[in-house]
Structures are given as C-alpha cells and as structure tokens.
Design goal:
2 copies of one chain form a homodimer.
Chain A lengths: L3 H19 L2 H6 L11 H10 L73 E5 L5 E3 L1 H4 L6 E8 L16 H5 L2 E10 H8 L7 E6 L6 E5 H6 L2 E6 L2 E2 L9 E3 L12 E7 L14 E2 L5 E2 L8 E6 L10 E10 L5 E7 L7 E2 L1 E3 L8 E9 L4 E9 L8 H8 L12 E4 L5 E4 L3
Helix pairs in contact in A: 1-3
Chain lengths: 426, 426
C-alpha cells in the first residue's frame, strides 16, 4: 500500500537527493556518481548545512538532551487550575510519545509543597508503629537488601480526566489524560523491610509519609503493602528524579498516584486507617446524593487515543497510523477496541510491545483516511473482563460531583480538514 | 537477614528521626507526638532544610533533569584515545545504572564527524540502486506506514573492551564495557520500505549511508535487512537524540554498532558489498598472522559485573548485592554464572526483569562479604548454547592485533578494604 503523499513527495525528494549527490556530498561518502539536478533544489543547501561541517564532538553534553527541534515536547500545566505552582500539577505530552515507557524528563509532576531537594546521604527511612523493632535505614542500606527487583508500572493521578466529569473539554490528550506515566522502577519489596522490623499480629494498615514540606501521608492496607508494593530508588535505569521522589519513593502498583508517596521518610504500622487530609477532604469521591465513596484505591481500566488528537491533528489523506495507550490497575490489558464513528462500529486495535500487568500498553490501528469526518473512541478491556465504560454510564452511577476516577471513554472529533477536537457525544 | 551496618545505623538514625518528630515536622504531617531528642541531632537541621520550606513548583523544568546530587552520573571519554572529539567515543556509566534500559542522556556516543544537527522537516531518506522505483521519504512519510513496531535492543560498538586485548586495564566498567547501551526503539521494518521500492531479483546487499559530515557507510547483507532491521525515529518513547541519529537511524539487531547508521539518508540496493572505509581499514579484525576476518557482524555473548567494580567499590561488610549485565547478538541470554574466586567456582546469578532477544539482561547475586579478597568474574550463556570465553581463549584464536570483538570474561579484584581494580588472571 503506497501512501499517496509519499508518491507525490518521491519525485520532489528524489530530485533533492540527486542534487545532493551532484553537490558531491554523497559522492564523497559512497562514490555514487549522479548528474547535477536539472534545476536548483532547496534541499541542496539545507543538506549541506549539516553534512559539510563538523558537528559537536563527544562530551559536548556529558548528560544528553533532546534536539533543538524538539523544544515543543514538554510537560505543560494549566495555570487557572490551582492557586499555586507549589501545590499543583502538570501533564505528560502523551501525543508526542510512542511505545510504553515515559521518558523521565516528561513524567507529569504533582506536588503538594514543591519539590523537596533531598541530600541522599542525609535521608532516612523509618519503620515504626506496631513492629517488634523500629528501624531507620539509609539509602545505602536499602541498596544492600537481597531480592532487588525491576518492574514497569503506570502511575495515574486519581484526578486524571477529572475535568471531563462535567464535560469541560480541554483540547488535547496531554490535558485530558496526561496525569499518567509509565516507568521502569528498581527497588526492593516493602515486605522485605516490614519483615525486618517484625510486624505485630494486630497490624492491619500502613501509613506512608513523605519528607517534603507537605508531609504527604496516605493510609495503605497492610495486605497491599505485603503483596506487591516496592520501595524504589531508581526510575528508567537511573536515580529517581527530584520531582518523582528522589532519593526514595513508594510504588503501589495499580493504585491511585498519591499513595505512591515521594521522598518517602516513614512507614508507620497500625491497626486502622489514619484518615489523613489527603484521603478525606481530598482523594475521596463525592457522589450525587452527598455521600462519599471511601478508599477508592484501584485505578480501573482506561484508554486514550493519543494520535490523532487535538494537539496532533491529521495532516494527510490516505494511509495513517492511529495510536494510543491502555492500562488497568487490575492486571494486564487483554484487548483494545477502536471506533471511528462514535461507538457504533468497533474494531480491535493491534497491540504492540510488551503487555505487562499494571503497565501502559501501546495500541495501533493502521487505516486509510479519505477525508471524512470521524468520531474516534477507544475502549480498554482488561484480563478480569472489565470493560471501560462510557462517561454517561459512569455519571449514572457516580454523578458529577467528583473529580476523581473518571475512566470514561474519550471522544475526538476529526474534521474534514484534519483538525481534531475534544467532544461529548450522547 | 539483617545487614550489620543497618543495625548499627538504626540506633543513630532512629534518634535522628525521633528528633525530627520532636522538631514538629512529622507532627505537622501526621499528628505523631514524640519527645524532643535527648541530645541535639545533626539530622534535624538537614531535614528541616527540605521539609520546612516550599520547593520548586511544577514547570520549574518543563523537561526534567537529574538531581543536583547526581552530577557525577555522566558519560565520560578518554582524551588520549582519539585525535579529535569529532571522531571519538565516550562511555556509558554502567556502574551507576540498574535494570536493562539505558537512559537516553547516558547512552554512549560514537561520532565520525561530530553530531549532525538535522532539521527534521528537511531531512529525506532515499532508497535507490537495484530497485524498480527509487523513492525518497520524508520523516512524516515514515510515520504513516502500517506495521509500526517497538523493540528493546542493545547496541554495542565492535571496539567495546578493545583496549583489553593486550591487557590494558582501564579502571572502571564504564571504560572497559561502556560502549554499549540498551534502548526501546519505535519504527518500521526496513523491509516495508524495500518492498515499497521493489527490490530487484539480483539484489544481495544493502548500503546504509548517514547524512553527517563523515557520510558513514556500511554494507549489510540484504537477508539481514529483510529479516529484522528497523528504520526508527524514536528511542525510549521520545524522538531520537541528536547524538543517536536524530531524526532517523537504522537498527541492526545483534550486529556491531557502526552498522546502525545514524542520521540515515540513503539505502542503496546492490549485488555485492561496497568495501567502504569503515568496513575495511576500520571494523575489520586483524589476526596474528596478518590476515583479517572479513565482515564480523554479530556481537557474541558477553557480560560484565557493574557492581562492585573499580568505580563502585564495596563499602560494607555483610550483605551486599552484586549486579551486572549480559547480552548476546544471537538471541536471548539463558544463564549467567558468577565466580568470586577467579573462575574456580561458579554459581548461577539471579536474572531479574524481562529477558528479551538481543537486549541487555540484568543479573544479581545477593551475597555476604566477610572482607576477604575476591576475584569477581561473570560468564554469559545464550540460548544457542554459546558460552562467553576467557580472554586467553580468545587470544589463542585471534591473537592481539585486533581491537574489535573482545567478548572475553572480565576480572575485578576486590581488596580487603573494598577497593576494586581491573586485573588479568592466567
């Protein structure tokens, strides 16, 4: 199948490339001989710019950074969303990324008291409460425990897509779904440290506390802490980034993001939840009748089409690649369906790359676009059989008072000119 | 099992943490009440620095960077190694990393004419030679082809560990083994583009050409190009880095690094190899009798212990974690053996994380160190049954004239004080 624009571009591009050879550049490298182009070609100059002169050598950047032509690929915030940037959030540019791993420099940020700049040699992690032996560990101590593990897990803020409950339509998947990232973590099971301290038989809950100025605290069931929580010091192969909890953070696979306490300084063992501020006045789902859902820890199956999307419109008719991400806090993604007509007809997407439990999963649909208007949706199904609901199905059950746990199906309207917008359909 | 230092640190650390609570910080956050410390504790001040004041808010760094305390984690070069930095190499800090993925900013660099700073909108990829229809593609064209794929592959320079042939002993795995990295790539099979252009029946070889000022060119058997080579534009989820070939590079899984042509501008199809400079005067293995091994494409199974190593000595007796990396250009790693006594006794290492074909694989050995001198070695076995050889076994066959394809077993001598050095043993 030949992309139509490709064919059109071939001729122009080929002249350019031939001219490039004629200019002696390809000749130098390969001995290729080609006649100079019939007419001057703009490509000749632009190619010469980077092929005629020496570029920067090694060590120009001992720690590398993206190309000057990728400056638009950044985290972005919404200034009206919060009163201050020290207690605020920004968003991962999902529409600019591919595969399943989020680059560390682009993982969305959520702070409640700004980024703690911790000197790792002076940081301590305390285990106290209902334990036989309260303990305090240095970061170096943690790295000496047996059973070190590596896992890729998604972290999603409970408020991700929260502005969509009442139909606010932020124009871009970065803003509607960008409070999620997916990272490789290196660390040890929290169970290893709890076993070290000796958890008392009447223990039922854990309190995780951060060392930042907000002293973020969340209550976590002991059962989850013993099952798969990790104490980690590394993300994507290198040390945690400051905004992600350097030097130590808690990983709570599949559960809402603010339980993954950053700058982790203390785990207290108790027999009941603490009902801290960030699990009562915040991170609680207020229902239509004024009651609240208590402790909605798990992030249910969800998906979003990242391309096309409002920040990444369609530019060409003919062959195109639709791409997106799916994830579930209950395990692996088993299938992703995509609709181009607002949910009337569905096709299964092609899932590529590793399908890991509680990790972002990448899907593609290779399709031809003839310029017709489209209503693009995606629907995730996880290995428990759970099917991602529509927003209306969610609203029927949960009302529109909450800002948390909106995993409803998102709709992108693609216009005939390729521009794409965030819309609500019945 | 209790790390001995941990127990010692507990008391001191616990006082510090209690003092921290007494200082009212933990109290603010958790309601925890604790008596002020009996004596002033150094931790109080240092903790207060980051817990008492607001840190940077979101968007302080739209594209994030590592902590100020991680400035030592960088690529490093060896100035005497090459005449200029535009045609030189630097090294991945393997001893500072964990897991299997190399952060993009720390992937070693190898340039032959410096870093081409290519404007992606003006870049073209030409397919010419023995094809029915020569074609030129823009980067946007490439992203519209069906069948986009994601794979993690190691890239190793053929000269990695080359200075070890004659027993030069650079003091650190960054320098002895750091010309390797492991990255997630997103792109399309090269076969897709060759099929588009229509490869003639007499075609047998491909020439890959780069758009940098060195016009790097390598001959690649057509069979390999059709089997698993990729044309990629993304690494670790984001655009390729300039020093890694932005905007387009060739991926040649399991084969020597300089065939993975960066800044890829042309694929020529031919009926025989071109014998370019970088595959004759360079990247050819000179044997003891003066003859050369022709086209040694595959990188054989290899491994290295990254911790402990000369740049990462042992600091504590008692529990420690030995860690390292193994890889094979012929497929998956099936086992890694580790010796602590210079190869007399071996134990199988614990492999953690995904074991992917032609990808770095992470291994660990949890061990207790009583302070005795150790001769640490690792030995990789791949799924074909190939066993990583000793350096002497390699020298018997290949002599010491070559600088390429040294996959011999590395030895680290750990002294009683924990300092570690690169040594040769019989």
């Amino acid at each position: 199948m030949t992309p139509r624009e490709t064919t059109r571009l071939d001729r122009r591009g080929f002249l350019g490339a031939a001219g490039l050879a004629g200019a002696g550049l390809a000749a130098t490298a390969t001995g290729l001989r080609a006649a100079p182009p019939a007419a001057p070609d703009p490509l000749i100059t632009t190619v010469q710019d980077w092929a005629r002169t020496l570029g920067d050598g090694v060590q120009a950047r001992p720690y590398g950074s993206p190309s000057q032509y990728e400056k638009h690929v950044v985290r972005r915030d919404v200034e009206w969303l919060t009163a201050s940037r020290e207690s605020s959030v920004n968003f991962t540019p999902l529409h600019e990324l591919d595969g399943i791993i989020t680059p560390s420099g682009l993982c969305f940020e959520r702070h409640h008291g700004g980024i703690a700049e911790i000197e790792p040699g002076k940081h301590r992690l305390m285990i106290n409460g209902l334990v036989d032996k309260p303990m305090v560990f240095t970061v170096e101590d943690l790295k000496r425990f047996p059973g070190r593990q590596n896992h890729a897990y998604f972290l999603e803020c409970a408020a991700n897509s929260g502005m969509e409950w009442r139909g606010a339509q932020l124009n871009g998947c970065q803003f509607t779904h960008g409070m999620v990232h997916n990272v490789w973590y290196t660390g040890i099971p929290l169970k290893t440290l709890l076993d070290e301290a000796g958890v008392r038989t009447n223990a039922k809950w854990l309190l995780a506390e951060g060392a930042d100025s907000s002293g973020m605290t969340r209550s976590i069931p002991l059962e989850k802490g013993l099952k798969d929580c990790l104490v980690v010091w590394s993300m994507n192969g290198e040390a945690l980034r400051p905004e992600q909890g350097y030097p130590v953070r808690l990983v709570v696979p599949g559960w809402e993001g603010n339980m993954w306490v950053k700058w982790l300084r203390r785990i207290e063992v108790g027999d009941q939840p603490w009902h801290q501020r960030e699990e009562t006045s915040k991170y609680t789902d207020l229902l239509a009748d004024g009651r609240s859902r208590r402790f909605t820890f798990v992030m249910d199956a969800k998906s979003v089409v990242t391309n096309p999307s409002p920040q990444a419109p369609l530019k060409h008719k003919g062959p195109n690649v639709l791409s997106g991400l799916a994830w579930s806090g209950r395990g692996r993604i088993s299938r992703v369906d995509v609709s181009l007509d607002g949910g009337r007809n569905w096709r299964s997407a092609r899932i590529d790359g590793p399908v890991l439990p509680m990790s972002l999963t990448r899907f593609y649909v290779d399709f031809d676009w003839n310029g017709q208007e489209m209503m693009i949706q995606s629907r995730a199904i996880d290995e428990t059989g759970y099917v991602q609901p529509t927003k209306d199905e969610l609203r029927k059950v949960r009302g529109v008072n909450s800002i948390y746990h909106n995993n409803g199906i998102q709709t992108w309207l693609v216009h005939a000119n390729g521009e794409t917008e965030n819309v609500e359909i019945g």
